[in-house]
Amino acid sequence: MLRTCTAVLFAISLSAQSTNELRFCLRTDPKTFNPLLVEDESSAVVRYLTAGLLIRVNRYTQELEGELASKWKVSENGRRIDFDLRQNVVFSDGTPFSCEDIAYTMRQVMDPALHSPTGDVFRSGAGAVETKCSGPASAMVRFPAPVATLAARFDGVAIVSAHSARKDSAVLGPFIVADYKPGNFVQLHRNPNYWKHDANGKKLPYLDSVRLEIQQNRELELLRFRRNQLDIVNKLDPEMYDRLATEVPRAGVDAGPSLDWEVVFFNQLANSPLPDYKRQWFRSDEFRAAISEAINRDDLCRIVYRGHAQPARGPVSVANRFWLNADLKPPVYSSTSALAKLQQAGFHSSGGALFDRGGHKVEFSMITNAGNKLHERMLALIQQDLAKIGIQLNVVTLDFPSLIERISKNFNYESVLMAFVNVDLDPNEQMNIWLSSADNHQWNPNEKTPETLWEAEIDRLMRAQASAQDPHKRKISFDRVQQIVSEKAPMIFLVNPNALAAVSPNVRNVTPAMLSPQIYWNVDRLTLGGGTVSQR
Amino acid sequence: MTRVQKIALVIVGLVTLASLAAGLLTASSYSEQFRDAISAPPSARFPLGTDELGRDRFARLLYGTRVSLLLAPAAALLSTLIAAIVGGTAGYLGGKWERCVTSGIDLFLSLPWLFLLLAVRALLPLNTSPVTSVIITFLLLGCLGWATPARIIRAGTRTLVHSDFLVQARASGVSGLRLFWRHLLPNLRPILLAQFWVSVPVFILSEANLGLLGLGVSEPLPSWGAMLRELENYSAILQNPWMLAPAALLIAVVCCLQLALRTEDRIPC
Amino acid sequence: MFRFVRRLLITALLGGLLGATLVRLGPGFGVDERELDTRLSSESRQAIRAEHAADSNIALFYIRYLNGLLHGDFGFSRSLNRPVADLLKERLPLTLGSLAYGVFGGVSIGFALALLTVWWRGPGVDLIPAALSGICLALPAAVIALLFLWMGAGGRWAIALVVFPHVYRYAKNLLVATYQSPHVLAAQAKGLSTSRIVMAHVLAPAAPQLAALAGISVNLAFGASIPIEVICDTPGVGQLAWKAALDRDLPLLVNITVLVALMTLAANSLADLALNAWRPAK
Lengths: 536, 269, 282
Hints:
Chain B has 269 residues and is mostly helical. Chain B has helices at residues 3-20, 22-25, 57-93, 95-110, 114-123, 130-144, 147-161, 164-171, 176-211, 224-228, 234-239, 245-260. In chain C, helix 4 packs parallel to helix 7 (156-179), helix 8 (182-190) packs across helix 9 (194-232) and helix 9 (194-232) packs antiparallel against helix 11.
């Protein structure tokens, strides 16, 4: 009865909406409207809606598409790229678009004083970037050293105007920021000079405006969605998704497994402030492999994610079909096998508890960020799984800065459960995690030389795949990396959560994609007015 | 003692006994996960159903009641004692000393004591047992929660100091310390008791809010605070009204405590 | 008057210094979640760390801050990327409005209920107010806020519901204790009417302590405003304080601490003045 009422009310309220405005939420205020300085998620959303790009990764087909560049060519082993620029394109304020804007943008992006994260992905070597304009409609950019997947990297580079008087209000994308009330909303209007047309020659975008409400509380966001004050909810908890599915069945969208990681890793630093015997446990390959086997991933997917997740096999999500090493399977859950592995490594059970060679009871802590219900529940399940093999796990939730301090500054932690958000399909995004000398080699960062043979091997393979151009050659190297990671378990990959969203049936042309932003990736083709959502 | 007070006391007593006898009243432990019975409705096996991890809600309620009923009053006692000493001496001494202490109390109230809590959490070794960490949490709350009661106690002391009987006692030559102990403190009792009983649920709720910051009770130990967090899921409650049991119990116990331990009996008619 | 204001300012600024020291010495200071971004080059990381290192000497930071205050510059919030003055200007009206509603509402409701209880003096007449008070005390501020939200009433009355049980409880105890004092008995024996007794002989002597309540209510209200603003996503100072705490944003937190200290001190000092003014002249 309650369900029917809610559905009817929802339908009635839908018909009341008249303007062609898309509404969804940002979690926090955008930190900047300068597309070259984007670091946080909210600013990235605004950039996505306003940016004009040379090349875009089509989130649905995962292919590269020319936008402002009608053609491009990569040469010199990834050092140089030539663009043929689209003609008769103007910025939102009427300034014409030409090669000079690209030169200006590249100079800004690569400016070392600016520390633009967008620029950092191009910084494969020291030296300046060179942009040559051989005519207004062609551009050549040369980098000091080869850049892996050069063309795809331009997906994050928003072209800014070199000549416009008001640089911040000259955009090439489908929308332009019209109003911003801090703490409340960001309002974007359609860019009347947007260059794209649909197949019938009609000017894009179809929408008149986009309104981004600033809302951190997810319950509130869902409430507003049900009251038809929002059209899209971009990231739904599994619990809320199920709730919504029972009340408004057509609104829930399960876009399948995402690229995100949920991982557990141990502190493997040689000089961490941990007692020696614990350090020995965490640096032992068999110990980590046994822990990985002792965790019941199916239960995590079923209970914590309510079936909206899949057990992870490694650093590549099951959704990433090309890069996934198809031979890998998720570790089979088996307490007995885990216990056997531990016994081989010198541990023994006594009175229901596990002890190491030195007679120390196996007891350690696992930290995670506070306020995340999914993590807290996963930890509770893992705690019980490990109790079965006699390990006492102490669960500690810490606020995020304290957590980061422990894992990157003072290294005073034993194990961590963390989520990593991956935006890119390409394994180059993970370079700084797998290179032993890198800062994000989280379990043992900034190694001067690789401390183990397998880490040295991973270093070699990652560099090989970065410098190779042929994707299949790269895949061979990266498959081997996945194999090693699966055996040695420096990071224990738990699950790949599904991307869950809510979309009002009022929004048309939504085709959920695997890459983020899953729902509004084709925002210039979305419109409102009673339609269906196609499921993948 | 009125009949209402007797009934209220009995209820509180029963709840306390039940929580202490949790092992006898329920077969499941508070942490055991029955993974094939997730979010189950009430049944003979699970009188209040199971939570989203398959744990017996009734068992968790009983054990959680034990944690909260034993520790929140301890924290309230600690905070009231500190408040009595600080507020009482300030109100009694008066003058510059009182102004100084008052400013100090106000300063303390305005500090972001989130950080005190976070700092202590950071100092705690990661492998502290859940029981130890929850005791430390409540003690900490007690040490931080004295400022507001101190103000009220100080105000009350001020009035008492200037009241007739105290002036008379002083006039008849009773010394300062004896004045404080024999004449002032006993008359502060109503205010102290009122503060104590108001603080108890406040500490229970602070513990719940702290849980969101990572300073609450560690898994798998249950507490009322942790169970109250389930209330955030409003529509789930509509479908599963037995989830209101911890809140109902908390309200009932708090109300009974207040009814049962009033220091003034009836209003004279 | 001048001495009063001076004391207020000095204490508030002292509070700011203490708050800043707390944040500086607390865990998680100087780290940035951007360090987990795998795209950043090591030069960018160094730049981020250098930004935070600039604040690590607390004495220097505070001197710079005080100097800035003299010139009207409240500092720059790193976590929100905007000047603190702008942030406060936007958010203060909202929070002050909620606080006003909350304090007046809470004190009025609590006091009215307490007065009613004392006035009518029947058996069991205090059961309903006690039950209401008990329920409001028993729910976390967050849940009260959520309930209001679902009813569409907005967060300001939530603060009133959080404040009123404390006011009711204390006011009732106080009024009842005063009612039982000898001079009231004498007044009753003389045959004075209830209303006159309550007005002249109960309320009057209890007034100073009730005034102290007003000061406490402000504190309670501000303390409750933080979780309520966070839950209701109201862009006020409470939500700002929460974000600043979680992000270890030193400039923002110092300003908020000084602000809260000023408000608390002012509210409580006014309550004290009331207490002094009512001291019975003997």
